[in-house]
Design goal:
5 strands; 5-stranded antiparallel beta sheet; 2 domains; 434 Repressor (Amino-terminal Domain); Beta-Lactamase
Amino acid sequence: MTASPALAPPPAPPGAQAPFGAHLRHWRSHRRLSQQDLALQADVSTRHLSYVETGRSQPSREMVLRLAERLDVPLRERNALLVAAGFAPLYRARALDHPDLAAARQAVEQVLHAHEPNPALAVDRHWHLVAANAAVAPLLAGVAPHLLEPPVNVLRLSLHPQGLGRRVANAAQWRGHLLHRLQQQFAATADAQLQALHDEIAAYPLALADAGQGRSEPALAAGAIAMPLQLRTDEGLLNLISTVTLFGTPVDVTLQELAIESFFPADEATRQALRRLCERVQQ
């Protein structure tokens, strides 16, 4: 078993009532930028930026948004920056079933449904299941009921020994892949809940029957184009590759944080098996 890399300790996040300068310093540190680096990118003087961080100068609304853009701050945290600077939030955060998001919800449902008989699901920023198509249910046979209680965490479900973890043939490879994705998300968002989720699943034992017997993980097939998910089912071994779909230009917090994970068959046997599994559900 290969060791899973740990996430770097995050900069201490400012409290809800912290001044704007503390929030700005947090994000600048997280992006590993000096004041001079950020000042150059935002086209402001280093002295002015220093004054803003120390509270000696109050930024305009336009300055807050410019700094947030240069720091690639997620929309949710841009609202926090605006509030800390004394301005109203700009980006709305509504549940996907809100009437104003009807078009987005319909788009998600169309993508999921059109992907059948291949499995596809939508998750939020913490990997909680938002929606799934009919092809997902047959893959969850034998999963412990407590892992299916809302809110269902997809990473926990797929890697927990009482979830799909015991049926993943390339468990170490797949877990390493997902932990790397969590690291990338943490780097982008500085979200402490993602760090906690990373640490939790990194501690899961590989639950395969042969996990402790010194057997190596299956090597990637010759000509492979992506890391596959190799899942044991009663229809045989599924070889799946995944893609992620995001909303391209969201101005709503919920939509920016929504991702659709779609799985495609990597071989003909898997394509046929997925069709048979999905037909069972639809009968």
